[in-house]
Design goal:
3-stranded antiparallel beta sheet; mainly alpha; 8 helices
Length: 186
């Protein structure tokens, strides 16, 4: 019975002999003597955090309207796009005491910038020639060394007139045409 009582005391004395245990800062902390309700309630109005997903369309419309009012006419004389971007940056930082500051993502910024440009009357002008070139999908020719790297022989590629409709329409096909290998889309 005495052995059972002595073992914890021996272990405790052995652990207490280490310098890590004796030379520590335990006495400086009051974990054992905690004060209950150590903070005083100030009765301030607690504002709930509003994240980017908490804003409504009305608030974003107000932000765009504020940005439209803060357009710099001197800057707009030289570049309306830069003036719109500058006004939107100012509005994000200052509208409603910085409510949107740091909470507008890149995609949301692009949407707001587009809405501001629409309100200002700045629409992208695309000439008809550039639009036709954009719609036209040019054929891409494949170099012979790329075919060799892929292990494809030129004789295995069908001629353009031999190509029949495949089940997978819309996918690109390799086609021989006038001595060149091209990528065609159906």
């Amino acid at each position: 019975m005495n052995i059972i009582m002595l073992v914890p005391n021996i272990v405790r004395r052995y652990i207490a002999s280490f310098p890590e245990v004796t030379n520590n800062a335990y006495n400086y902390f009051n974990y054992d003597h905690r004060v209950v309700d150590e903070r005083v309630q100030r009765f301030d109005a607690h504002m709930p955090y509003q994240g980017p997903s908490d804003f409504s369309d009305m608030e974003y419309d107000g932000l765009v309207a504020c940005a439209q009012q803060s357009l710099d006419p001197t800057l707009a004389r030289y570049s309306k796009t830069v003036a719109c971007e500058d006004a939107l940056h100012k509005a994000i930082r200052s509208f409603n005491n910085g409510l949107f500051d740091g909470k507008v993502s890149a995609s949301r910024y692009n949407v707001l910038l587009g809405a501001l440009k629409d309100k200002v009357g700045l629409v992208p002008v695309i000439d008809k020639q550039a639009k036709k070139e954009k719609e036209k999908d040019p054929d891409v020719s494949v170099r012979p060394h790329i075919l060799r790297q892929l292990g494809i022989k030129q004789k295995d590629i069908p001629q353009a007139f031999q190509l029949k409709r495949r089940v997978q329409e819309g996918l690109p096909h390799l086609v021989r045409e006038k001595g060149k290998v091209k990528v065609k889309k159906d």
